[in-house]
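input
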Amino acid sequence: MTPLIFLFMIAAAPHAGSTRGWIAHPVERPYGEFVAGERVNGPALVEVSRLNVLRFDYRLGVSVAYLQGPDLTLPFIPFTPGKPTYEPAVSTATIAAINQTRGGSLKDLAEKLVGIDSTVVYERGIVEGYAGGANGAIQAIRSLATHADIVLRKDGDEKEVLDSIPVVQSKIASALNTPWPSRDVSDKRASVAGVTAELTTYATGNDKEENLRKALLTYAGQIADRVDSIGAASSIAVRYQDAWVNLGEWRWLLQKINDGGAKSFVLQARVGQESHVLFNVESRVELLSHDRFTAPNTAVLRETVVTVVRPSPLTISAGVGMSFDDEIAFGIVPSKSVVPDPVNGGTKTVTVNRIGYTRRSDAQPIPTLLLNYRLWPIQGGRWNVEMSGGAAVDIHGNVGTEVEYVLGAGLSFGHAIVLTGGVHCARVSRLAGDFHPYDQVPDNLTAPPLRKTWKGSPMLAVTIRMR
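output
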């Protein structure tokens, strides 16, 4: 048998560092609402909706373990490019003078450094644009997550959030199309190193050339520092690479949310399937949330959404049953009889003892104690089909009581009231020997001869659960 599962809708209040404040709406139970953490009867399909999955990573279930996901922290990239030096550390007039005497070797090296410096300035402008594009994508993601908080708090309009995702995706795509130019920067560093090596081994002919060579070496060192400031090992490049990888994760996440539509903002957990014959089984449904804008190893928030109780299928109930049994009690009943009068002739009326009924009824109430076994729930446990068996105490006035038996099936409502229809197996009295009702008996017979026998009769019982 497959129990009918009912659905809980959990309307989620948006988050401001906390996800508390859930309201549980049982869809198939329009007569009430459940506050977060309340105990409800199961089994249940627990649904949590209006989740800001852009801001938080959620897990829903019983005894949920949070598995650390990728780093999606998205810190902004601090980038303030330094002002480059566009002129070499020596004057062109000095280089021209050397050119006239030394064939122009120092001039060529100086021009190489100026050319390298110009390309470094160009590369710095490129990476500055890259950092700006990445920061723009980061800001777009953060703004979308904040906007989702506002929209979901207002009316749970997931469509408005979904319609905003493509704009953010385009910004992410632009940022991901601009990887850090590590190879180009590395080539510039090699060029600077080559010129530096030439300057280091350059043989000067006089003090003026030596001073110029030292000035060019200083200039080469300045260019090398600027190259290193945007190299692959620089802090700015490392931050950019991390953000570049994280933006790739966000592109995948946004695409997944967009493909899932409104269902992306909903989590479901089927709870309360387990049962025990003798004991209730409790399942605490927890919602775990982790802020995506914090480090992956940051502690998660653990909240109890609802506690689903799967009651034991065995229950005990007590109440009153109505047995539709033709209950009969026999006795010696004096009655008038018309007999012949042998003395005076004719007839006369005399009193004789006959077997008669002292009590007779078509139905009677009797106290009932039942052991019920739940077969399957209806409407998520609002109603339950049950099989019942137990005892009934038949009270016979001054005669005494009889413990009798009941077997049947019925419905329980709200895990409280049980309505049972079945068979009442009663001990009934019947005349023994050849006696029949209204037979005349001797005067010395004070009670009719009786025998006890079992008889099954229809019965309807209303009982209240005691356990």
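quick obs: The first strand starts at residue 6 and ends at 11.
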